[in-house]
């Protein structure tokens, strides 16, 4: 049993002072406010929930900074994808484990408590399954366990290269399964990871699965999460309309029982009607504002969606930059730049930082199927302690602290992080930061040589 004592903390009832949180077996056992610190309590600054990162491709952390050169033709998402495929064809299981561990350390240091890993790199370089079909999934699991980050694994179903059932491309061979091999993979992932992770399902996109395949994948979910990339690019919307006559989110809502198990990743290009229907479905919009900016995807129209009580969370996706505060800031700034207004994501009269943080905490927990996102009894003990002595929060009270963190500062404000009650970050640094960074560096040097990057 561990007990933390916070000068102040954000609990479900609002901000409170002198908050004692008892942790038992990875779960918050009790939360007391106005409580004196007792002998043996760990003294902490400002307590907030650690939020769930609802979308990550961990191996792409190895590409950060390598796709920022201008090419001969216009650069786009699709030219970025060419570089990503070169990496995807080069990484070994050891590389994946080393890169994922680095990404997960950075997530924890940023203030995330868990991740939904959208995992599609299944097979060996020839496209054949590994002798252990779940080899790569186990490496992801090992990286999460070493870093101490909560994991929801989403093995990805990928079978097609475009709408209408076009066959997968040769460079997609490490991702590809049919429904039978996919069902075996999901079963193996569940067996291999056991109680250490939640395992959901993930049809990659409407491009990568036929309607029959989509239905077959969703049927494997039971009550586990279902994540899908959707409407990230205008090119994808145009192709979907050419194929079906309707836009991707509309098509999905018409043809699948989209409910609270679902996370629609990106959903960037939704019209007002689709946005309202998505809000009504109870699904989470999985927004990845930094990656969407980096890739030139576009901006999700948040205001009408939030006015309709739409649920959202944030993901680091390509992991080009890993930050909680920065992701939420980019979400808000994208709106401001698009509609020339301020405080777009706030509730009327309320703090923007508080609305962004509360929304992302609840949506992240839902998308990860993890009882987290709040400092309350029964929740996973995913907790961040912010440094109350930082000049960034001097004179700031309650929600102003979140506004200062998101809009005024940096991740240096993150002091301690616990995931499932295990303290993994102290003084802003992960306990295994150096060892994991050294292994990551070796993997990157090898990959640089292998890919000519
Ligand atoms: Zn993605």
Task: Please describe what this structure looks like.
This protein has 453 residues and is α/β, with parallel strands linked by helices. It has 14 helices and 19 strands. It has a single domain, classed as Metal-dependent hydrolases (TIM Barrel, Alpha-Beta Barrel), CATH 3.20.20.140. A hairpin with a 2-residue loop joins strand 17 and strand 18. The protein is globular. The model has no long low-confidence stretch (mean pLDDT 96). The chain binds zinc ion (ZN). Zinc ion (ZN) binds next to loops.
Nutshell version of this structure?
By secondary structure, this protein is α/β, with parallel strands linked by helices.
Key descriptive features of the protein:
single chain, 453 residues, alpha/beta, TIM Barrel, eight-stranded mixed sheet, five-stranded parallel sheet, 19 strands, 38% helix, 23% strand, binds zinc ion
């Amino acid at each position: 049993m561990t007990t933390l004592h916070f000068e102040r903390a954000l609990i479900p009832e609002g901000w409170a002072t002198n908050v004692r949180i008892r942790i038992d077996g990875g779960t918050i056992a009790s939360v007391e406010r106005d409580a004196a610190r007792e002998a043996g309590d760990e003294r902490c600054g400002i307590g907030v929930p650690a939020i769930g990162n609802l979308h990550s491709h961990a191996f792409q952390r190895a590409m950060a900074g390598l796709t920022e050169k201008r090419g001969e033709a216009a650069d786009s998402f699709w030219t970025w994808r060419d570089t990503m495929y070169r990496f995807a064809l080069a990484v070994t299981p050891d590389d994946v484990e080393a890169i994922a561990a680095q990404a997960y350390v950075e997530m924890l240091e940023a203030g995330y408590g868990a991740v939904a890993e959208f995992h599609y790199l299944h097979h060996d370089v020839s496209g054949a399954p590994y002798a252990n079909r779940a080899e790569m999934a186990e490496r992801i699991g090992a990286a999460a366990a070493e870093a101490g980050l909560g994991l929801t694994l989403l093995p990805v179903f990928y079978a097609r290269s475009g709408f209408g059932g076009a066959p997968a491309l040769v460079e997609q061979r490490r991702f590809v399964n049919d429904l039978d091999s996919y069902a075996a993979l999901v079963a193996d992932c569940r067996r291999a990871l056991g109680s250490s992770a939640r395992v959901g399902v993930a049809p990659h996109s409407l491009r990568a699965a036929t309607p029959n395949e989509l239905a077959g994948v969703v049927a494997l979910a039971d009550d586990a999460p279902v994540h899908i990339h959707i409407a990230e690019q205008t090119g994808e919307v145009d192709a979907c309309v050419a194929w079906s006559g309707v836009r991707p989110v509309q098509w999905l809502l018409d043809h699948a029982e989209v409910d609270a198990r679902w996370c629609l990743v990106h959903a960037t290009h939704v019209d007002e009607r689709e946005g309202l229907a998505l809000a009504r479905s109870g699904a989470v919009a999985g927004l990845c504002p930094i990656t969407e900016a980096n890739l030139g995807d576009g901006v999700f129209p948040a205001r009408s969606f939030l006015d309709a009580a739409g649920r959202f969370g944030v993901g680091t996706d390509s992991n080009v930059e890993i930050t909680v505060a920065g992701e939420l800031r980019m979400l808000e700034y994208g709106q401001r730049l698009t509609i020339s207004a301020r405080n777009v994501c706030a509730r009327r009269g309320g703090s923007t930082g508080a609305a962004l943080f509360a929304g992302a905490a609840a949506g992240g927990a839902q998308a990860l199927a993890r009882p987290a996102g709040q400092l309350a009894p029964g929740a996973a003990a995913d907790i961040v302690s912010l440094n109350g002595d930082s000049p960034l929060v001097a004179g700031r009270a309650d929600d102003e602290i979140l506004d200062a963190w998101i809009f005024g500062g940096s991740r240096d404000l993150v002091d301690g992080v616990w995931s499932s009650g295990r303290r993994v970050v102290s003084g802003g640094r992960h306990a295994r930061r150096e060892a994991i960074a050294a292994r990551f560096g070796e993997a990157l040097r090898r990959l640089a040589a292998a890919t000519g990057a």
